[in-house]
Each structure stands twice: as C-alpha cells, then as structure tokens.
Amino acid sequence: MTYVFGPVSSRRLGQSLGVDLLPSKSCTWNCLYCQLGKTKSFVTERQEFFSREEILEEIRQALTLNTNLDWVTFVGSGETLLYKGIGWLIAETKKLTTVPVAVITNGSLLYLQEVREELLQADAVLPSLNAGSEALHNKIDRPASGLTFQQHIEGLAAFRSQYKGRLWIEVMLLGGINDSDEALYDLASVLKEINPDMVHLVLPTRPAPEQQVQLPSDERLERAIAILSEAATVVNPLKGNMDLRKAPDLLEAVTAIVSRHPVQQRELQKAVADCFPDGSAKADEVVQQIFATARFKLVEHNGEPYWVMRTA
Ligand code: SF4
User: Fold this and answer.
1) How big is the CA angle at 149 (ends 143 and 153), to the nearest 5 degrees?
2) Candidate CATH numbers 2.160.10.10, 3.30.70.20, 2.40.128.10, 1.10.10.10; the one for domain 247-312
3) Tens of pLDDT along 72-93?
4) What CATH code is assigned to 4-243?
5) How many H-runs (helices) and E-runs (strands) does the chain carry?
6) What is the pTM of this model?
7) Cα-to-centroid distance, 279 and ligand 1 (Å)
8) Which of 9, 67, 172, 219 reaches 20 to 30 Å from 146, CA-CA?
C-alpha cells in the first residue's frame, strides 16, 4: 500500500491505522526534533497531492484486513493539513467504519477558516504546541516565513471554539530547551487560553536526523506535568508496540513504518517475532532478510539502536 500503513500501537491511540497524505517531506515547519530530517523547502500551499479516491480505496482495503482497530489516524510525512480535501476523506472514511478518526497535525494552518471546517467531523485532533512564547516557538518549530506564533495560538483557540470533538494538544518536551520553569509557565498560560480537552506530553525518544535532541530529566518531566496540569489534564504517554501480525507483506509493512519514523530495533524484533509464535529462528531470518535489502540503516539515540531509512 502507498498511503496506508500499520497498524501501529500507542498508549494514546491503541491500535491505529495510519494514513499518510503527503509526499515526504512537505511541511510548514522545520522542527528541531523532526524524525523526517530537515525541511529542505517549506510547503505552505494546500494541495491535493495524491488522488483522494486512490487514498480512500486503500483505506477501504485496509479496513477489511484489520478488524481490530481503535483509530484511523491521518498523519503525514510533514504537515497533514496541507492536504486539501482531508475533510472529504474524513467524511468518506466515517461512512466506511465506526472506528473513530484522528488527525495529527502541527496546527499551523488552523488560522484558516477553510482548514478548521475540514476538520469538524474528526473524532480527535492532535495539534502541536511546543512553546508559550514567540522566541521559543521560532527556536523549536522554525516555521516558514509568514507563519507567526500569534497566528498559531489564534488558530488553535478559534478551532477550539468551533470544534466539538476531542482536542488533544501535543507538547514535545525537549531537555534543556522548553523544560525550564519559565518556559513551562508560559506554555501553561497559553494552554489556559486554548482550553484543550487534554495535553499529551511527548518526549524525543526517537532519533532526529538533523541534530541531537535530549530527553528531559525525570525531575524536569515531573515538573512539566505539575505545571501544565494547572492548565489541562496531562497525559504522559508510554510508547506502544508495532503489530505486524496482519501484514500481508512484512517487508512492505516495515518499510511503510520506518519511512515515516525511526523504529527501535528491539521493538521491530519483537513485532516480527510475534508474527512467528512457533519459531524465533524464522523471525531472526526474516529480520535479516528485511535489513539485507539495504533500504535501512542503524543509528543510535539515547543509547538505543534504531532503524531509519537510508537516504540516497
Ligand atoms: S511539524 Fe512534524 S513533520 Fe513538520 S518539521 Fe515538525 S515534526 Fe517534522
């Protein structure tokens, strides 16, 4: 499949079927922590990058193969809301299934009324907010010129006032960058204005190709939970596991996931082993075959080996 991948598992979204609407990497931001590497040229113009009917057909097929899903999640190799027509895809997906639909986005285009309207039928929207000040927003998210911090906050607040579904804001907590008391109090004050249903605190557990980003210390993480909890319910998600058991083609399934984010070696080995409950030797053999294709390479992050796509 070209657009649909997974299911991948997480504590926040359980078993989630991913739908990627963008050519890699198309983004309005160039975040320090991006797992897709540097944004070589910003994309800010919304387009229907791929045929919406072809994407919907893949979703239809994947829904027949995977019957045990908790979410269908639109998430891009870049900024998801750059896909013009996402509202149509959400509506059509909801005609196919009762599985709820989530959208993961950086939220930078929510200042546009047409974008907010396209999202109204989603069951959950997960935009990013990593800073409570313009200076830190520019340091972490590094937006395209013309996209301002003020616009971002106003877009989130305007969306909140229109949207009846679950608004879960994602905050990436970066050690030494946005984990000081000052940065956290700024963030809490902006979160109070926006009034999300929850804040999902996420950590840079996967490697970022462009530069090393640090995990916050346990003390800073606890402090972040305490300060941000004054503004909203804070969830500190644990990482879930990949489930490849229903994948018709293991190599294709692994490629689809690794091309979208780095995968911990242990996690991959376990996911493949789960496909062969009767023989770990067979699982080892398959892992060797997958990596013998030379599509992937091993990198180290916070002392853990991860597989990432090899770039030309
Ligand atoms: S918004 Fe997402 S895809 Fe875009 S640069 Fe940031 S982390 Fe990467």
Assistant:
1) 125
2) 1.10.10.10
3) 999 989 999 999 999 999 999 9
4) 3.20.20.70
5) 10, 12
6) 0.82
7) 39
8) 172
